[in-house]
Design goal:
858 residues, alpha+beta, Immunoglobulin-like, 27 helices
Amino acid sequence: MGTVTSGSPDPVTAEGPSARAPGSGPGPGSGSRRLGRLPRLPRLSQLPRLSQLPRLSRLYGPLLAFVITAGAFCTAWALRGGYPFGGAGHAVNDQANQYVPFHRGLWDLVHGRAAGDLLFTWRGGFGQQFLADYHTYLANPFSWLAVLVPRDHVDLAVFAVTPLTMGTAAALMAGYLGKLQSGPWWQRGILGACYGLCGWALSDASYIPMWLWGLVALPLLGIAVEWCLEGRRWPGATLLVALAWFGNFYTAMMATMAACVLLGIRLLTREMTGRERLRALGRAASAAVTGILLTLPLLLPSFLASGDAQPTRAGAFDPVRLDAFLTGLLPATHLWGGRPRLYVASLGLILAGTFVLNTAIARRTRLVWAAATLLVLASFQFPPTQYVWHGLAVPNGNPYRETFVFSAMVVVLAWLALAHRPRPLHLAVCAALLVAAAFALRRTDDFGGWTWPAVLGGGALSLSALLLLGLGSGGGRGHRVLVPAAAVLMAGVVFAESTAAAANADARRARERWAKPAVTSGASISRHYDAVRRVDGWPAYRTDSGAPQTSYNDALALGAEGPQYYSSYLPKATYRALEPLGYGFKNDGRTFFGADNPVLDAIFSIGARVRPGAAPGTWTASRFPAPPLVTVRSAPYTSPNPADSVYARQENVLGATVYQVPQVSRGGTATAQTYEARCAPGSEAYWYSPTIYGTALSDGTRRRLEDRMTGVLPLGPVPASGRVTVAVHTLTAGATAGDHPVGCLDRTRLDAAVRHLTTTGATSVKTGGHTIEATLPRAATGTAVFAVTSTPGWHCSAPITDFHGLLALPVPPDGSPLTCTFTPKGLPPGLAAATLALLTLTSVATTTLVRRRRTRDA
């Protein structure tokens, strides 16, 4: 009765009657409920110190890494005066055109203001899939911070995703380093910050929130590898793989390849039997497969959507010169264009250089790690391995998107060297080699202005801190002073050097035309959004947010339903439907712009438009009649106008003749051309010249022409003389406007066509998140045409037919409503595979828990 069992969690509660003093408790037959003697509380001096709490102390290193990384990036942000630390714009390139608008679309979705759902959006491109866009642009878990702030400040939340993600990556790297080799927490934290502030993060991905998740994925997968090697936590390793791939599959793929390299290194350097190695390899492979399968409901639709997307003209991989490649290794260097950014802070470079020289590390470990790191570096310059890093595809942009893998390996080498106390001579030699490399590469194109201060100043301070650490670690009276001083100096130099590198990268990148920072919030944008909301009438009609645009995704950003859309997944079916009708586009057809053209408005049920007001920064909204989203064509229609003109193609879709397309005479020179035509007085003249880059002057108004980006342009009313004259100045050698650049619109005929489509069209249209239902007049016959491009994924109540690229169905003879539902390709099998993976994960986790409980009970 009085025995305390080994499985008892609390000896106090395990005491039996024999442990009590006589008379201290109720005896047999006693009805008293008196409590026994309470245990004596420990004195305050006997309580464990905060630093002695093992679980809490594990967080010190990751927390330090997070603070240094996020703090350095935000300091550089403030030094540049970017919003909210100043009035300068902060959004770079696609950050303004894609990421902020998509996050505003996510905000609308969560707050119940979206026209669509997670599978489909009606805002942009006249209806497009959304699931692949979500997985690509919004799956970084920190992106969900955007839904917690007011809509006007979503852009600030998007900017905050960068330091938060970089800081998290640094913190996880600090944890991963501790699994490779034990050592002081503050040293792991500082080197974790070196990884979070690597050149790839600062120069390539700092404005791309979804790519930055790859920086997090690599140490996540490294930790999963260690668990598999230890033969434990298989469910945890599987969940880490899934978390890496949920965040962003593109950089997670690169991080997974890096994890395979890390696994191979550890299998070669860790003391294990052959059987243990096979078991670890099996656990890692099964965890990777199961984890990736869990993400298949997002991954498979994204992969298939990529196959259906409008293709781009990506060039072959062309490695940079060796001197430029090596310059990317120098700290605080920012090279123009598609150059590799390989560096980490000087502290990490100096320590990594001593790795091979450090005889305290096993020889096999040094050889394997060094060889693997060099092979990874060389693979960036070899086309076949570059294709493997990028998923067997040529990247559209910077071809060195996987360089964070090399930076991670450099930081690992630095940590292993530091944990084994590098010799002062080795440190000095490596610091001298860094200076010599900078001197040899100083004349390389775009050698960074901050590189010399980083190499000389940062290198000298790093060397000093490491020497102080060596002296302090030797013991003696100075131990308590030198080690903290070294810690502060090491943290300070990484912070300062990385801040300078980030500010330098931001400043130099801003000089490039494509990277000029844009403003993504302000009074004008707020008024533009309010103007759109005032005339919103969805789904009775669409609202076009108009021009000038603040982003390529204004429809998402401003809550409109126009054609504006920019996505890597914009289908080629959408391109084939919109391009012939005169909508402007760029990025080989993955970005579409609006067109102020009433015929296109009628075709796509646009019944409201926003235009700039008389005062700067103001906007006005106008309403006008528009057919419903679903109309009926009783018979095919062929325009009598020249078939190769954009105006005839518009009439074929509209089903009526509304244009006069006159013969045009051309004169002038190759660069200064004059076009003349005659149209009916009072009609409205339009211009279309997709091959000309320059300007067009008509009726005293000069308009900018940007070849394919400029769609159909209004020239204004035709004068009483009936003469339309356009003076074109082109910068495109040999380009002309073609035979039929001018079309004159008869408003009376267009109004009649709109009334006819309205009368014969749907009497009721209902839209859900990814569904549309139309009720047609009882006497309707022919083809029901939806003002939606016929993209892959639509499933309807009747067989889908093609109508100039739009979704069309035969009108049912019984007058039943027509319904269509959009399901992304690959979603059903993806859900099935994820369910199977989840069952596997659950069964393994349950079996493990039961087995542990039985062992504990035994």
